[in-house]
Specification:
There is one protein chain. The chain has one domain: Hypothetical protein apc22750. Chain B (Translation Initiation Factor IF3). Helix content is about 30%, strand content about 30%. It has six helices and eight strands, in the order ααββαβββαβααββ. The strands form two sheets. Strands 1-4-3-5 form a four-stranded mixed beta sheet. Helix 2 runs parallel beside helix 4. It is globular, with a radius of gyration of 22 Å. It comes from Rhodococcus antarcticus. This is Heavy metal-binding domain-containing protein. Belongs to the UPF0145 family.
């Protein structure tokens, strides 16, 4: 934090960024400049919860662990951005790395580029209701395009669900051996798990007062739990309109002339 404070206060300090050259250009075109690469980390021991072999069920202890670990990493990333005086963070990436400290020990990492508005724009125009920098997993191109639409990012929202998918009994396996047949027990489990993750992501966006969520990614990870226990993760950027009178500019037409 001391290093970040010195970097933010020092006149003519260099910035660090994981933006590509094209992304850097478009972030500047959008009226922002990068002030530094910020990150948050949490090495977390994920507890143990046993699911019933023949029952579809959410494993709430594991769900809560993954929520809390990611929240710790993200809040520390936001704290670094605030120390730099940034108005937001773009290109946020959330990653997990298994450590050799133990099979249930995982490092949760949040990293992105902190940016600050140029041209005398007020911080309150871009920051959240609590005055914190916004967070977004949009890359530089998508961030520029979002602002052209009259919308601004509010925050990175996510929903997660760790779900145990029931094993099939021997009779059920034998009944479908060699046949084309839907497995309704599996279908229902995946439906329910994804629905829980998406509903929680939507609830986070509603809490922020968002108009909608863009760039949603719905993914699944087995981690170290085996094939019948899976984490379903829904993540996207909650957005809001920043100007009620904003008019979207028409696309530029390029005309080619024969020589």
């Amino acid at each position: 934090m001391r290093r970040l404070a010195e970097l933010g206060d020092r006149q003519g300090a260099i910035f660090t960024s994981d933006l590509s050259v094209n992304e850097f250009l478009l972030v500047k075109e959008a009226g922002f400049h990068p002030v530094g690469l910020v990150l948050g980390s949490s090495i977390y021991h994920v507890g143990l919860q046993v699911g019933r072999w023949s029952k579809n069920q959410e494993l709430t202890t594991l769900t809560q662990a993954l929520y809390h670990a990611r929240e710790l990493a993200m809040s520390r990333m936001v704290a670094e951005a605030a120390a730099l005086g940034a108005d937001g963070i773009v290109g946020v990436r959330l990653t997990l790395e298994q450590k050799e400290f133990g099979s249930n020990v995982t490092e949760f990492i949040a990293i992105g580029t902190a940016v600050k508005a140029e041209g005398g724009r007020t911080q309150t125009q871009w920051r959240t209701r609590t005055g914190a920098p916004f967070t977004s997993d949009l890359n530089g191109q998508d961030f520029w395009t979002l602002l052209q639409s009259g919308h601004a990012p509010l925050g990175l929202v996510l929903g997660t669900c760790v779900y145990h998918i029931a094993h099939r009994g021997l009779g059920n396996v034998m009944a479908t051996a060699g046949q084309n047949a839907e497995l309704p027990q599996y279908t229902q489990a995946l439906y329910e798990a994804r629905e829980l993750a998406m509903g929680r992501m939507q609830a986070e966006a509603e809490k922020l007062g968002a108009e909608g969520i863009v760039g949603v990614v719905l993914d699944s990870h087995n981690h170290t739990w085996g094939g019948h226990t899976t984490e379903f993760l829904a993540i996207g950027t909650a957005v809001r309109p920043y100007a009620v009178d904003h008019v979207i500019a028409p696309p530029t037409m390029v005309i080619g002339l024969d020589r």
